[in-house]
Amino acid sequence: MLCPAGAMGQSGGQGVKLPLTPLSLCSSIAGIPWRIFRSYSSASTKEKENRNGTCERTELLEVLKARAKQLQGSNVPEVTVDKVELAAVDNDKYQEDVAPGPRENQPIPRARGDGLARSSPWAKKLQKEMYIQQLKMKQELPSAASQLALESQAKTKAKSMKTPKMNAATAWNQSSGSPHSKPRVVETKEAAELKRPQSMPKDKSNQQVLQQTIQSNLECFQFLQQPEEAERYLLLCHSSPVKKKVLDIGAYNIVMRIWARKGCLNRIDRLFSVLESNGLRPNLDSYAVALVCMGRNQSPPKVILRYLQQLNSSGFHVDELFQKCLFEEDEKEMVLWAIRTVQPNYQLPPPPSPEISKSSLLQDFYSRETMVSYPKLDFSRKELQERFQQQLEMELKNTITIESVEAAKPLTPQAIKARKLLGTLRSQWHGAILQALQNSKRSMARPRRLSKYNILYPYLCLLPDEEYVDIMMQVLNDLSPQGESLAVLARELGSKVYDRYITQRKLRSRQLEKVQEIYENYIQLLAKDSQPKQYLPREYWEKLVAEAGFGPSLSLKNCSWPCVLLMRLGMYMLELLVKAVKVPKNILNRRLESKPIPVLYHVYSFYSNWQVGLIKPHPVFSQLVSNAAETMLTFNSSAMPMLCPPVPWTSHNFGAFVLNDTKLMRFMDETTHHQLLLEQCPPVNLHPVLDALNQLGNCAWKINQPVLDIIISIFNDKGDEKLDIPPPLSEAPKPPTAPGHSSTWSKSLKHELFLCKKKTAEMHSLRMDALYKLSIANYVRDKVFWFPHNMDFRGRTYPCPPYFNHLGNDVTRAILLFAEGRPLGPRGLDWLKIHLVNLTGLKKKNALQERLDYANEIMEDILDSADHPLTGRKWWMNTDEPWQALACCMEIAKASRSPDPAAYISHFPVHQDGSCNGLQHYAALGRDLSGAASVNLVPCGLPQDVYSAVAQQVEEFRKKDAEQGVKIAQVLQGFISRKVVKQTVMTVVYGVTRYGGRLQIEKRLKEISEFPEEYLWEASQYLVKQVFNSIKEMFSATRDIQNWLTESAKLIAQSGRTVEWVTPLGLPIIQPYYRSRSTVLNCGMQRLSVKNPNSSQKPDTVKQKNAFPPNFIHSLDSTHMMLTALHCLRKGLTFVSVHDCYWTHALTVDVMNQVCRQQFVALHSEKILQDLSEFMLEKYCSSSSSSTAPIAHWQKRLMEQLSNVPRTGEFNLKQVMDSTYFFS
Question: What value does the CA radius of gyration of the chain take, rounded to a whole number of Å?
């Protein structure tokens, strides 16, 4: 989940999702991330307002229940909810009552038996609320977006009642599997039906979703090679007034492309006529497709000439076909054959000469005069080729199953029995799901059979049936005992199908063949047994592509499926899974009857005021899985580190993995704005960013095996929370014994039970997160591997594999080493010792020499930690970063005991950390003298600590107030410390408000046991005010700049525009904060509210305003990091970063420090604020010269605001070059 100042998590983006959400990524209750509550509530506002008493109701609704629809069939008009009998598991008795889950658009459940549905007054109240809600719902129109994007369910129902023998074509060609069905002309009645929702799509988001859906549908037919169905669907859209409005030339081109593959020129001629009659003009792709067809069926010259003349008269040139069009398979050769039929001497246009970035910050870097050979890896061409094949095989399988680190535990007879039982059940489930899928597809293929899922039929034909079953089985196997949000699972299932479909498209278009061929030559740049080459990876790859000439284009334009489609496909698969997978009730207790019961249940739960639909496994299944203690884990291949160097980024849509689709920029909440911005950006402007990402991704890694083995031994022996190794669930707090029925429990008992449950869920989530990381590390323990990188919308970089990477916690970082070793050199051992002291957190205020002296004083402890980590004095355990400290102790021990420490080959990364990096950028922007001194931009003998300085300033304010008799100032005497103010000072630069700051300070004061509790609120309110005043006084220029950025963003957002800017490296940035509207998906199990992507949404003024200062500073710190990465490459350094923490070998720390300072000075020597002002004036305030209309009042205000750039102080930037503690 991304906050304005936070790092982007792996899920928005293109990360791979396993079912559990690590708490390190986002707050989780019962394994459900907070973003789900925010984005996928299906409760109405009124219902939310009326639901307080969270804990009590969570307990009430957290029980397992059988959905009546699931048990009784899919179209029962009246739903009954009965008390569910849950099978006893071993000796534990599960006697949980059932509360009816709210069901919109359905009659109120009638309870029978003695279940809670009858007895609970709250359940009755909920039923009453739901009845009132239904009456309201009947009066409202269904959501326009879901109607349009997903073929108007409401309309289909109405028409199925009136006309049971409705034309099958109107129901999305349900007979697409039948070659005998003929296209029919749509009658006036159909047109009248389609006119009904015509007034709705005024909202452009609906039109956008509809357009995307039409394109996805047509691409489905293209992949299935069904031109008749594609054309029928296109003409159906053409006859609909609503859909006709969103039909563009791209839709026609897709259908023509399918006919071109078949060589049917007469069909293409006909479509040319239809599109022109629709007011559209053929574009370059249209002519390319026609020429492909003519090349394929070897048309006569006369016909080809007619099309070429039409191409010229449309203002195009033949050469542009090869320069601008994207081709699949042998299409390029077909076009060339057609052209040479009428112009035998025609030659392909030469590839364009490579463009060079004009960024003033990189003139030296891109200069051919200063170009050096690209550094080689310690691998031969043959070895790299073998590694590429291993990576390709892994990606072609889509998933990889590896052994868990828990496999080392001895196997019990109970586990052997449970595993055998699970194996048998899974085999049965596989067959049951396959049968259910095939039956469902047969039903959909019947021409007159109408269903809400008929629209999905082509999407269920894209892959072999077995693959859909594998995807569903993977989700079932990975489901946690706490369950998972229905929306998350639906999205995951839909996305997995989409990812496999894209892989199949790449195989079908022969793109993979070409990538293989080019990668084989690309490794000459990296292999040690090939000639040195003066190219960057991107440049060399582009050169090889240009030389390859023919074959498919590597950047195929894939239409991503709209979110509503992914969700509906996922919901369909989920319903199939829930209905098909059953287990005998007596599987673990033979005394019970043997009737089959569902393995999965759909339940509702409340978190805060949000209602969330969950899919939960039956306790019998959870117990069986727990007993089996299985030791295999399955991951998507893109969750694993790469086994070969990544494919270099050459554009915004090509790079990273060999086959897996990866976005250059991680997107949030389905927004498409960044993608559009990147597509419109001249490719040369992205070169610096792409080259920096390639440089980070090309760093090879290996595992620190001794440290990993120690961590695994503790992990398998009950963990250790102090050392950040989560304990297993067997160590979870035991819930108090609850007597009698739940209705007799006291509030405090319910609350205690809820807290136990919450703690257990958190422990499970943390434990699984650690298990994933350690198991992946153990899998690659003997391998060299790579982390491909991409970035968030601000340009901050992240490794693509989401679980195990160097951005992880202390445990993860401690087990990573550079694969390349370098001698320590004369100062390397000293840097290792200083790095160790930095990791302890003990000498932050001391000079580097004092830190080194301290390390030498405690050498005995360091060597003891290295030799006896778990049995010695355990000095390393009492440090800030214990595992990294232990790894460093071991490295120092090995180096200091070697015959010549300077010649010792070290693989160990040494870190240099920015000193409150956000404030450093602010101080440099404002040339703020006092601010610069506080954050170590000015040379000084000792490191300056801005947090202590602010605490000192706050203490002075407090003393003055105390002398004047201010009571709270007197109470606070002796309680103001660095720790109390640190978090607030750190986050002020990232836009924390006084409200947020007060909560931070209150939390710190609570940790002081002596502080009187009754003064907490008043004291935190007083202190946050003084902290803000201190920062204002110490960083006057910083506050001026922050206020200018905030006010500018506020005025821009109020004018209805989103805030955009371009970084000094040329990366375009747009803030993705909008007042989002939702589409309601009326799926079988429940209604889902899904956020709409929309290029015309109104901006969220508050978020745009508050987020601009921190996001702008983040874009600058990422620019500084990228500049450092590129210039370190030129100096031959290994370099990686964790945002403002830079890593390199001990040998090259001094060189990296010099480069880092040079690039900071170079960056801030640019007119950053002035350039920003000019860019925004041009973008938001410029009007056409011919316009004589008066300037609006808001525009005048915005012009004044943007023109009034804050004045800068007297600080001399060049002083940074001599500041030891700028990064240290």
Answer: 32
Q: Which two tokens stand for residue 210?
A: 């509809």
Contact of 1058 with 1104, CB cutoff 8 Å: yes
Question: Residue 582: is its pLDDT beyond 60?
Answer: yes
* 1032 belongs to the catalytic site: no
Active site residue 913: yes
DSSP symbol at 1020 = H
Of 782, 773, 779, give the one whose Cα is nearest residue 804. 773
Q: Among 1042, 1116, 1041, 1108, which residue's Cα sits nearest to residue 1073? A: 1108
Residue tagged active-site, from 465, 669, 913, 1150: 913
Quote the CA–CA distance of 1166 and 369 in Å, as a whole number.
24
Catalytic residue chosen out of the listed positions 982, 1050, 1103, 1105 = 982
- Half-sphere exposure (CA, 13 Å, Cβ side) for 582? 14
The size of the chain, in residues, is 1224
3 state DSSP class of 602: strand
pLDDT range class, residue 219, cuts 50, 70, 90? very high
243-293 pLDDT, tens digit each? 888 888 999 999 999 999 999 999 999 999 888 888 889 999 999 999 999
CB-based contact 1216:1159 (threshold 8 Å) = no
Contact (CB, 8 A) for 533 and 525: yes
Return the C-alpha torsion angle 655, 658, 660, 665, nearest 10.
-10
139-164 in b/e burial notation, b at 16+ Cβ within 10 A? eeebbbbbbbbbbbbebbeebeeeee
Buried b (16+ CB within 10 A) or exposed e, 1077-1103: bbbbbbbbbbbbbbbbbbeebebbbeb
Q: Are 583 and 43 in contact (CB under 8 A)?
A: no
pTM above 0.85, yes or no: no
Residue reference for tokens 């019970």: 592
Active site (annotated) includes residue 982: yes
pLDDT at residue 646 in the model: 96
- Residue closest to 828 by CA, chosen among 852, 812, 811, 807: 852
d(CA 810, CA 800): 19
- Asked if 81 and 119 touch (Cβ cutoff 8 Å), the reply is no
pLDDT of residue 450 exceeding 80, the answer is no
Strand (E) or helix (H) holding 601: strand 600-607
**Residue 805 φ/ψ, nearest 5 degrees:** -165, 175
What does the block give as tokens for 543? 């050169």
Give the pLDDT of residue 447: 64
d(CA 249, CA 309): 20
pLDDT digits (tens, 9 = 90+) for 969-1013: 998 988 998 889 988 888 877 778 888 899 999 988 988 888 888
- What average pLDDT does the structure give for the chain? 81
